[in-house]
Design brief:
CATH topology of the largest domain: Rossmann fold
Strand content: 15-25%
Number of domains: 3
Number of strands: 15
Helix content: 25-40%
Order of helices and strands: EHEHEHEHHHEHEEHHEHEEEHEHEEHE
Distance between the termini: 57 Å
Number of helices: 13
CATH superfamily of the largest domain: P-loop containing nucleotide triphosphate hydrolases
Strand order of the largest sheet: 6-7-5-8-9-11-10
CATH class of the largest domain: Alpha Beta
CATH architecture of the largest domain: 3-Layer(aba) Sandwich
Shape: globular
């Protein structure tokens, strides 16, 4: 077992091309990740394989080539642009005589450096512990003696088992603390619902310019830099529109094959995205991988059940293109579909605000529902959203409930109930509100 690398240390990078799209990664993106982590690349090993080698991932010959480069460059760490199994990591460390990291561990390290708030630090630690729990190395073998006889009795538990028990305890403790933070966030969301303010969430591939756009729109000072995962912690600000206002939420950037441990750990943060009425999908239109990055974000949105929320695509960084002016592209039904702008230059902000105004559901519904006794769980959902204005019961035991909520929230509830809620409505009205 080797010590974890420190910022500024030298690294050899390993990138393998696979014919399988599920394993395909981008070498340039790996170099950006390494730079963001603070390490310095002193060499790159590349190759092609049809499938990973079970022992070394790269094959015996390539592992020997890697070891030779590590010795020649005196690199302190080897970083793979792929996910490695614990056994592959250990086998490579024995050959290279240095620490070996995979893509997931590298991303976790970057998240650990970027986290600033209490919640963000807890989420990163949770993801790291979950990842580490699969990579505990058997050690302290002298504690394994459980034979009889004087001086031969061990503690009855190996060090590996002790480490796992301590990890489980720490993970359980962090989950409790994150649940508490999540309840506080839920209270804040209810307050916003009561004020009839819709939430618009920024999503997109990391380094697409989300924080720069957020700062430009809201006159905030969220940290923004030309690096991957510059900001992690969600930030919410009120955004004034020509006809009112909304809540704008800046969230963590996505990346291809975002580690599942991170998705699970950042569940509370990503909840801001799942509860939004509109997603602004920021894309770097000057990036050659624009479409691929767009698809990767859509995959993550699907994973967190946010793929059905209406989206407005924001094509950022038009200042890097030749002869390109800000504009709005409209869909066949006349609704805004795409906005072209430059967050860095502040070009096209007025068009974006216009498009948001047209898309955001600024209609508040007042509904009276007759919910039978079998629909009690729907009443619970309404209490959770804090939309109940009045509740009573008729002689047949039906719950007569009057609710007030945004049209977007009502449509989301209808979808979740597979249309059943709509059959309970017997009185409805709607009003346009100044958001």
């Amino acid at each position: 077992m080797f010590d974890r690398y420190e910022a500024g240390e030298t690294a050899v990078l390993v990138h393998i091309d696979f014919s399988d799209d599920e394993r395909r990664e981008d070498l340039v993106e790996l170099q950006l990740l390494v730079e963001s982590a603070g390490a310095r690349s002193v060499g790159v090993i590349t190759g092609s394989r049809r499938a990973p080698d079970r022992k070394f991932f790269v094959g015996t010959g390539k592992a020997e080539e890697l070891a030779a480069m590590v010795a020649a460059t005196e690199a302190k760490v080897v970083i793979f642009n792929h996910a490695l199994s614990p056994a592959q990591e250990r086998n490579l460390e024995r050959v290279c005589h240095c620490r070996v990291l995979d893509r997931t561990t590298l991303i976790l390290d970057i998240f650990a450096q970027r986290a600033r708030t209490h919640e963000g630090k807890l989420q990163v630690e949770l993801a790291q512990l979950r990842h580490m729990s699969t990579r505990l190395i058997r050690g302290w073998t002298h504690l394994e003696r459980q034979k009889g006889g004087i001086g031969m009795r061990g503690p009855g538990e190996t060090q590996l088992e002790t480490d796992r028990r301590l990890l489980r305890g720490r993970i359980k403790n962090i989950n409790r603390r994150l649940d508490k933070v999540d309840k506080q966030r839920e209270q804040s969301r209810r307050s916003r619902k009561r004020s009839d303010l819709a939430t618009v969430s920024l999503v997109g591939y990391t380094n697409a310019g989300k924080s720069t756009l957020f700062n430009g729109l809201t006159s905030s000072d969220v940290y923004a830099a030309d690096q991957l995962f510059a900001t992690l912690d969600p930030t919410l600000r009120k955004l004034d529109l020509p006809d009112g206002a909304v809540i704008l939420a800046d969230t963590v950037g996505f990346i291809r094959h975002l580690p599942h441990d991170l998705v699970a750990a950042f569940k509370a943060t990503l909840q801001e995205t799942r509860q939004a009425e509109l997603l602004l999908h920021i894309v770097d239109c000057a990036d050659d991988n624009m479409q691929d990055n767009f698809d990767q974000v859509q995959d993550v949105l699907k994973e967190i059940d946010a793929d059905e929320i209406p989206q407005l695509v924001v094509c950022n960084k038009i200042d890097l293109l030749e002869d390109f002016a800000p504009r709005i592209d409209y869909a066949e039904d006349g609704t805004p579909e795409r906005v072209w702008l430059s967050a860095q230059k502040g070009q096209g902000f007025d068009l974006l605000l216009q498009a948001i105004t047209e898309l955001v559901g600024n209609i508040v519904l007042e509904l009276t529902l007759k919910v039978p006794a079998t629909g009690g769980h729907y009443i619970g959902q309404m209490y959770k959203l804090d939309v109940i204005e009045h509740k009573d019961y008729d002689d047949l035991g039906n719950c007569i409930v009057k609710i007030r909520l945004l049209d977007a929230d009502w449509r989301r509830m209808i979808k979740q109930s597979q249309g059943e809620l709509e059959t309970f409505v017997f009185e409805a009205s709607e009003t346009d509100v100044i958001l």
